[in-house]
Amino acid sequence: MNYCSDCGAPVSLLVPPGDNRERHVCSACGTIHYQNPKVVVGCIPEWEDKILLCRRAIQPRQGLWTLPAGFMERGETTREGAARETLEEANARVEVGQLYSLFNLPHIDQVYMLFRARLLDLEFSPGEESLEVALFEEGEIPWELLAFQTVRETLKLYFRDRPGGHRGLYSGDIVREWGADEPRVRVTIHEERG
Amino acid sequence: MNYCSDCGAPVSLLVPPGDNRERHVCSACGTIHYQNPKVVVGCIPEWEDKILLCRRAIQPRQGLWTLPAGFMERGETTREGAARETLEEANARVEVGQLYSLFNLPHIDQVYMLFRARLLDLEFSPGEESLEVALFEEGEIPWELLAFQTVRETLKLYFRDRPGGHRGLYSGDIVREWGADEPRVRVTIHEERG
Fold it and tell me: Residue B62 carries which DSSP code?
């Protein structure tokens, strides 16, 4: 951020009075421009013992498989966003069920929320951001070709639990740490029930 | 938003190719400036059968009582943010427990997440944004002087469930609807467990 989006004057990075973090502050009108994490919402669309995955037509991770998910938009709830993303990426209609996993990714300022969802029909097809959309049984999941760690961790939990029918919420942190010479990813899972 | 925060040129409101919503797009460098909901994180700090509330020193709802909560910052997890807000607003140290309530407020583009938390000591005091900080038993909660509906709904659920010890997650939508002449608020609660 270089310029004030309100008045167009240059901004400076400084700690405003009463605050404890650097913010972009306008040198002319004084507006403080806060930047905050974004929410990514999506579904685990279920049909019998299969789930629906999309192969990405766009970067990042073009060509790899993912659950339908994307940035939550203004004016919608998390469930509405999850259903919208599923419709946009897979032309698939779902009834959104319980929140299944919530992942923090503080190194990229994202909070992922993935909901279980019941696919309402089989009339799905690739949306603009997908190359292919298909149903997968557990044994068919392309584990080595999944686009995002949030999706991999969610699907691992989902298939591990399926025989017993766990329906609680998992939350987790996917934290990038710098080791001797390369970043490592640390995954922590909390089970959010009593 | 009037100007591009990258290059300072005027922005236009238009639907970018491949998108289906109006965005602020720079007329010079073409940058698309997305705007997304924000996450508010906070705690229900518990000490024996009491919970901690803060009386707000700032707008909005100055002088009213609330749970310690605020906007999630970049580089932190939801739990870290909830603990930080509790420290900032109440100078209170907590061990953050389970996610208790998640509220969507689509009319103001916020997602609230409130965690149960164990107060580690009684050395709390008002932070810069608080006038007072105090512990309340159920019968002492100032229901008519609570600052936010998210806090009111969360505390109603919390005290309703306390005898039985519910520890699951509630999620809800607080939606402002326009009726004949005034906005009404509709609250929907989901119980996020099997």
Answer: T
Characterize the bridge pairing of strands B170-178 and B94-105. parallel
Q: Residue A194 has what pLDDT?
A: 37
Q: For residue B88, how many other CB atoms are within 10 A of its CB?
A: 16
pTM, whole model, 2 decimals?
0.93
CB contact at 8 A, B41 and B85: yes
- Is residue B172 a contact partner of residue B102, using CB atoms and an 8 Å limit? yes
CA distance A69 to A84: 9
Tens digits of residue pLDDT in A125-168 = 999 999 999 999 999 999 999 999 999 999 999 998 876 666 67
What Cα–Cα distance (Å) separates residue A109 from each residue in A71, A104, A148, B22, B66?
12, 8, 15, 24, 26
List of E strands, B35-78: 38-47, 50-56, 65-66, 69-71
DSSP bridge partners of A51: A46, A136
Bridge partners of residue B133, in order along the sequence: B54
Task: List beta partners, residue B193.
Answer: none
Q: Where do the domains of chain B lie, and which CATH numbers do they carry? A: 1-35 (2.20.70.10), 38-191 (3.90.79.10)
Cβ-contact B43, B86 below 8 angstroms: yes
**Which residues does A31 contact at the CB level (< 8 Å), separation at least 6?**
A4, A6, A7, A25
A 10 A CB-CB count for A136 gives: 15
CA distance B58 to B66: 12
Structure token digits, residue B103: 């509220």
Q: Do A73 and B21 touch (CB under 8 A)?
A: yes
Residue B116 per-residue DSSP state? E
Q: How many other β-carbons are positioned within 10 Å of the β-carbon of residue B125?
A: 10
CA distance B125 to chain A (A): 17
Alpha carbon of B54 to those of A57, A123, B44, B84, B148: distances in Å? 49, 52, 11, 14, 12
**Do the strands A50-56 and B110-119 form a parallel or antiparallel pair, or are they unpaired?**
unpaired
B 90-149 → A contacts, CB under 8 A: 98-99, 102, 104, 106-107, 109, 111, 128
How many angstroms away from the CA of A79 is the closest CA of chain B?
A: 9
Give me the percent of chain B exceeding a pLDDT of 90: 79
